[in-house]
């Protein structure tokens, strides 16, 4: 698992309470196991002084008490003790399993299991709608949200690359659902600041930019690799090439497109979000590396360099979207160019909200 959702959603107080409960339960089990042999022996004192572990009957109390202290009795008691403890632990597990589960969560888990099976069948289309409509996130189940989205993305990628006709979903529906699923999973992963989750989020964002907005991400990384040695006008020229499909489409409009009500359909919004996700506090942080492409043609560069290229691209395309002020992005680029490594992206965090 990439993260532990139960710990993520549980408050500190609940954690403490749960730890106390587990400690108390463990102590109770320990005390119970210790008392089993005694109860079996002492409880049978009234029953002709019979010792169950040793399977032996005594004629009087004094002899019986002396037997309880003998090495033979203690050895027999130890032999029986693991069995009894195991029985108690099994009972505890059964009680935990029998605890009531949120019906919505139970229903969602059943649907996820069924949809996963269907997704791996010869006709995975029916699984798409089920996986898309699962509401684990609202039920505070991020691990299951991750599982559902990951399975949905894998299924849609298979359908998208299929050479046979797909019944039930159009190519447009597959692409739009895949795009939204990648963004949703990337945003979820960004909540958990681990190397694994951030790297996967990077890949998801790049895939979304390439599939939806037709950004050549290998070229994007190639430019990012050289951005320290390319003059600003050269970077802007290369960034215009990256966004040329979008730019040419928008330049053909006689009337500017209205502002997008769905922010996922706003190129500038997604680019701005991506800038914030790729940026790090230190430009020289070599741990934040981004790769794209297959093993044979993999491109790798620093996360911050990608953020710089995306910032330049945003500056170019922002003039085509209603409600955004392109000159503010240009001001941000100027501030980034003049700032030191440690303060490199402070201006982005402070100013990028002003542009939209």
Question: Could you outline the blueprint of secondary structure elements for this entry?
Answer:
Blueprint: H1 5-9, H2 12-42, E1 50-51, E2 56-57, H3 61-68, H4 71-97, H5 103-119, H6 125-133, H7 142-161, H8 171-191, H9 195-213, H10 217-226, H11 232-242, H12 244-251, H13 267-278, E3 289-292, E4 299-302, H14 303-317, H15 326-338, H16 346-351
Antiparallel strand pairs: 1-2, 3-4
Helix pairs in contact: 2-4, 5-6, 5-7, 6-7, 7-8, 8-9, 9-13, 10-14, 11-14, 13-14, 14-15
Which geometry do the CA atoms define?
elongated
Q: Please tally the helical runs, counting DSSP H or I stretches of 4 or more residues.
A: 16
Radius of gyration: 32 Å
First-residue to last-residue Cα separation: 37 Å
How do the strands of the widest beta sheet line up side by side?
A: 1-2
Helical content (DSSP H or I, runs of 4+) = 55-70%
Share of residues in strands = under 5%
At a glance:
InterPro entries: Znf_C2H2_jaz, Znf_C2H2_sf, Znf_C2H2_type. By secondary structure, the protein is mainly α.
What does this structure look like?
The chain is mainly α. Residues 3-47, 83-88, 282-287 and 340-352 have low confidence and may be disordered. It has helices at 5-9, 12-42, 61-68, 71-97, 103-119, 125-133, 142-161, 171-191, 195-213, 217-226, 232-242, 244-251, 267-278, 303-317, 326-338, 346-351, and strands spanning 50-51, 56-57, 289-292, 299-302. A two-stranded antiparallel ribbon has the order 1-2. Strands 3-4 form a two-stranded antiparallel ribbon. α2 (12-42) crosses α4. It folds into three domains: 5-97, no CATH class; 102-192, no CATH class; 215-356, no CATH class. The chain has 16 helices and four strands. 65% of the residues lie in helices and 3% in strands.
């Amino acid at each position: 698992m990439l993260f532990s959702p139960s710990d993520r959603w549980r408050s500190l107080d609940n954690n403490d309470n749960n730890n106390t409960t587990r400690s108390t339960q463990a102590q109770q089990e320990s005390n119970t196991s210790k008392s089993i042999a005694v109860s079996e022996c002492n409880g049978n004192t009234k029953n002709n002084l019979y010792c169950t572990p040793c399977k032996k009957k005594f004629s009087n109390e004094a002899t019986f008490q002396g037997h309880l202290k003998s090495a033979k009795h203690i050895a027999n008691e130890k032999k029986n003790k693991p069995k009894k403890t195991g029985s108690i632990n099994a009972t505890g597990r059964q009680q935990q399993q029998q605890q009531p589960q949120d019906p919505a969560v139970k229903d969602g888990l059943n649907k996820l299991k069924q949809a996963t099976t269907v997704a791996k069948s010869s006709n995975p289309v029916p699984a798409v709608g089920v996986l898309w409509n699962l509401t684990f996130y609202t039920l505070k189940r991020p691990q299951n949200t991750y599982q559902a989205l990951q399975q949905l993305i894998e299924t849609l990628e298979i359908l998208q690359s299929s050479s046979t006709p797909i019944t039930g979903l159009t190519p447009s529906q597959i692409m739009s659902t895949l795009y939204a699923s990648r963004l949703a999973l990337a945003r979820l992963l960004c909540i958990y600041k681990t190397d694994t989750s951030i790297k996967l989020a990077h890949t998801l964002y790049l895939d979304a930019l390439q599939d939806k907005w037709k950004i050549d991400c290998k070229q994007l990384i190639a430019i990012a690799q050289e951005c320290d040695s390319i003059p600003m006008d050269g970077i802007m020229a290369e960034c215009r090439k990256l966004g040329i499909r979008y730019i040419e489409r928008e330049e053909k409009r006689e009337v500017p497109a209205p502002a997008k009500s769905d922010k996922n359909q706003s190129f500038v919004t997604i680019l701005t979000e991506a800038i914030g996700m790729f940026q790090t506090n230190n430009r020289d942080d070599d741990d934040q590396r981004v790769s794209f492409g297959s093993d044979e043609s993999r491109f790798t560069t620093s996360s911050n360099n990608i953020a710089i290229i995306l910032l330049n691209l945003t500056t170019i395309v922002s003039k085509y979207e209603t409600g955004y002020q392109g000159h503010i992005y240009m001001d941000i680029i100027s501030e980034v160019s003049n700032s030191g490594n440690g303060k490199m992206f402070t201006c982005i965090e402070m100013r990028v909200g002003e542009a939209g």
